[in-house]
Amino acid sequence: MQASPVRDRSRHISPSGFGDSVFRSQILLAGAVGLIVCVSVALSDRVLAESAAFFFGLTALLWVTIASAVVPWLRIALGWQMVIPLLDIVALALLRLAVPDSGFGVLMIFPVIWLATSFGRAGYVAGPALTSLILLPHALLVELDLYVPPGTPPNTISAISLSVTLAFVAGVTHAASRRVESQRVLLRRQTQMLEKALRRARRQEATLREAFDAVEFAVISLDRNGRTMASNRASRSLLNQLGLPESTPWHRFPLYRADKITPLPLAEFPHLRLLAGETVENQTYCIGHRTGTRFTIDVSARLLRDDRDEIDRVVVVLRDVSAEVRAITDRDDLVTSMSHELRTPLSSVLGYVDLALESDGLPAPTREMLEVALTNAQRLNSLVNDLLAARSTSPSNAIALRPSRCDVSALVLESVDAIRPLSTERLISIQLDIADHVHAQVDAFRLRQVVDNLLSNAVKYNRSGGRITVATRLLPRDGDTAVEIRVADTGRGMTLEEQKGLFERFYRAESVRGSTMHGTGLGLSISRDIVVRHGGTIEVDSAPDRGTEVVVTVPQGIEPMSPFTVADRHAEES
């Protein structure tokens, strides 16, 4: 006979149904008793029908079996359900008293196990106690000759041994049942935790999937072999715009180099470059067939690793920058067109003003006005030239250097003298720390352009009554000697975000765009080009309300870098 389900701590019946388990357990016990009865009747010399204990035992067992089948045990409190195994013990004890040498005593172990398993400590105590209460007094009475049973008298030692055995079995079963129950509770809690974790993971997955599909740029997840594992809505939309099926594998994407002509070899695909140890960040490609829809895309790729730090997958991000490229091209074309249109009338204005100034007999006020007009026309012409230089991305149109040996200290002092009237007007003092006779092989005109721009910015963005510090010196650099020019001010300073775009063409910080401080946003970009062409560096150190310090370093004896080298240098810095 199998034990009934373990009792839950909440005193609910197990899902399998306590009533069904009661009947199954009881019918098995009744079947075993019936078999032993048949054997006892066939082999015993006694007439068992004359034994009252035998009759009452069989009758009790029969009615208990019927009750297990018809009583709705699920509607009855758990304490009352102990009646079934307790009555089984009574019935089996009566049968054993009637036939001591039969196996009815052994069958008592099953209701004892049932009680110890299903009814906790009360069942564990009640089973052995009831058994001892029935068997031991009867054996003691017989042993003391106070009662002489009909037939074979019971063995006292056998009765005591059976009681002890049943108590031991009940204890072991109860302990095992508690361990099983504890494990079951632990497993139930772990199952609940896993279910919560699974639900949370599913919610996070759904959230990530929605975010994945909500972004406007295409995201493709690839395995090590380049097979597509996942893609978002934007990537599928990109394929639809190109007239390609959504199932197009990554290696079949029509990628071209930035020149829009050369097909991208498979070995140069971003994910393979990344797996080869290269960095793929903001790389520009063209996607689409020559005769169909084409886009300029910005591609970045990242490696994702598993918990063993092995490559799990590659994530490729494609962003359509066609509109940005067109806007930049249109802006550059407009700047070029306007600059060329302005150069011809400006040249005429400069020429005629020069001729006018060379005329004899000009009144002083007229000459003064013409000189002002000439100064502003020259400034306008310089701006036009700066626009053209900034617009030029072709090495053939890049800034050309004409290096010669010059005194950098004298050059810086000339620039300081030129800016001093403007600084005096704003009550800005200039402190000098200029080393004497610092000579270098540089383009004096271009280097003066750099210093003029730095000093102009130091005055323009300084506070009234502020201070500018200008210093030059020679310092060792990579086994050679370099010239350092340092310009520091006590002005408004810049945030880190503003410093990021400082050397970009046409960049002006948002905080000064609406102010009265005018500018084109080209000065530092052109200065950086000039310094790089000299083989030098330009560094900026600034913080809000702390001022700005710019350090220019150029080799003392240089060989001018080729325009192609400058372009490569700019690409590396960006």
Q: Could you characterize the architecture of this molecule?
A:
Strand 10 (467-477) and strand 11 form a beta hairpin. The protein has 574 residues and is an alpha+beta fold. It folds into four domains: 18-190; 218-320, 2-Layer Sandwich (Beta-Lactamase), CATH 3.30.450.20; 328-391, Signal transduction histidine kinase, dimerisation/phosphotransfer (DHp) domain (Helix Hairpins); 404-573, 2-Layer Sandwich (Heat Shock Protein 90). The protein has 17 helices and 13 strands. A six-stranded antiparallel sheet has the order 2-1-6-5-4-3. A five-stranded mixed sheet has the order 8-10-11-13-12, covered by helices on one side. Helix 1 runs antiparallel to helix 2 (52-70). The radius of gyration is 50 Å and the shape is rod-shaped. 53% of the residues lie in helices and 15% in strands.
List the topology elements.
Elements: H1 18-43, H2 52-70, H3 83-98, H4 104-107, H5 109-118, H6 120-143, H7 156-214, E1 218-222, E2 228-231, H8 233-241, E3 255-256, H9 270-275, E4 283-287, E5 295-305, E6 311-320, H10 322-357, H11 364-391, E7 404-407, H12 408-425, E8 429-434, E9 439-442, H13 444-460, E10 467-477, E11 480-489, H14 496-500, H15 510-513, H16 523-533, E12 537-543, E13 547-555, H17 563-573
Parallel strand pairs: 8-10
Antiparallel strand pairs: 1-2, 1-6, 3-4, 4-5, 5-6, 7-9, 10-11, 11-13, 12-13
Helix pairs in contact: 1-2, 2-3, 3-5, 3-6, 5-6, 5-7, 6-7, 10-11, 12-13, 13-16
